[in-house]
Hints:
- The protein is mainly α.
- Among the domains are: about 110-150, Arc Repressor Mutant, subunit A (Orthogonal Bundle); about 155-205, Arc Repressor Mutant, subunit A (Orthogonal Bundle).
- Helices cover about 60% and strands about 10% of the residues.
- The protein has helices at about 30-35, 50-70, 80-85, 90-105, 110-125, 130-140, 145-150, 155-170, 175-190, 195-205; strands spanning about 1-5, 5-10, 15-20, 30, 45.
- The chain has a 3-stranded antiparallel β-sheet with strand order 2-3-4.
- The longest helix has 24 residues, at about 50-70.
Amino acid sequence: MIEIRAVEKDSKHRSRYLIFADGEEPILSVHEDLLIRHTLFKGQLLTEAQIEEIGSEDDRYRAYAMAIYYLGFKPRTSKQIQQYLQRKLIAEDHINYTIERLEKEHIVDDEQYAMQFAAQRMKSSQKGRRYIQQELLQRGVSKTAALAATSAIDSEMELETALAIASKKWRAIKGEPFECRRKLAAFLIRRGFPVDIIKAAVKSAEENA
């Protein structure tokens, strides 16, 4: 058994404590929540196995806290959180634990994220649903969730967006009418608009030029 000889507040990290036994180096560094949960106070006896388990629990706790902090800036997908924690060199099993917990607590919901992202991008980016779907896939959203989110995009709003940018782009394109139509259609394809909307937008841009 190992006896705790001293407990000191970590001067470098708020809410963390250093646990000492006989040596100069701490045997544990834990968040205050774990300090209280495991009654890690002077005189407490711990086995090697307990020390290892508490250390592992603290690593999981820290990974979770880092994910919560990361989510504080804006919503993220599970994949984005995984990549963030990997950059922070968090162990894979702790990353898996964190993501599972966040999903269970409904703090992270890729389907809801996809719906919100698709609606926002349609309003602000002047991109079509196919482009937005690719953006969602790049963020780690499943194909099913990305398709569901982009399928829910209002077709009238998407058409209005395409009409507006097609009209503006048409004025900047040079060449014969056929060539202008081809160039505009290619531009709208790159923007991710579906074929029916592209046809309507090109026709409208040429007729109203």
